[in-house]
From TrEMBL:
High-level lineage: Bacteria, Bacillati, Actinomycetota, Actinomycetes, Micrococcales
Keyword tags: Ribonucleoprotein, Ribosomal protein
InterPro entries with a match to the protein in the record: Ribosomal_protein_uL29, Ribosomal_uL29, Ribosomal_uL29_CS, Ribosomal_uL29_sf
Gene Ontology terms: biological process: translation
Listed name of the protein: Large ribosomal subunit protein uL29
Keyword Ribosomal protein belongs to the record: yes
A Gene Ontology term for the protein's cellular component: cytosolic large ribosomal subunit
Statement: the UniProt record of this protein carries the keyword DNA damage: no
Family affiliation: Belongs to the universal ribosomal protein uL29 family.
Gene source species: Flavimobilis marinus
Single annotated GO MF: structural constituent of ribosome
Length: 79
């Protein structure tokens, strides 16, 4: 089983347009910042969540890059 958030599976992210992916990326980066802050202050309860959020960010970057290269296509507006 892949590590990461169930809401951000590749099949789910494929259906998002680039603007929605950018919004999800911003949200994931903010969560990662908060988790790192909690870890630094000793308040972090789930260290596995750090790994999951980092993988979610990498997954979003991968899909965006594949779209740039033409490997993966963005969903059309009619869908």
């Amino acid at each position: 089983m892949a590590i990461g958030t169930k809401d951000l599976a590749v099949t789910e992210l494929d259906g998002y347009d680039n603007d929605r992916l950018a919004a999800e990326l911003d949200k994931a980066k903010q969560e990662l910042f908060n988790l790192r802050f909690q870890a630094a202050t000793g308040q972090l309860e789930s260290h596995g969540r750090l790994k999951a959020v980092r993988r979610d960010i990498a997954r979003i970057y991968t899909i965006l890059r594949e779209r740039e290269l033409g490997i993966r296509t963005a969903p059309s507006a009619s869908e």
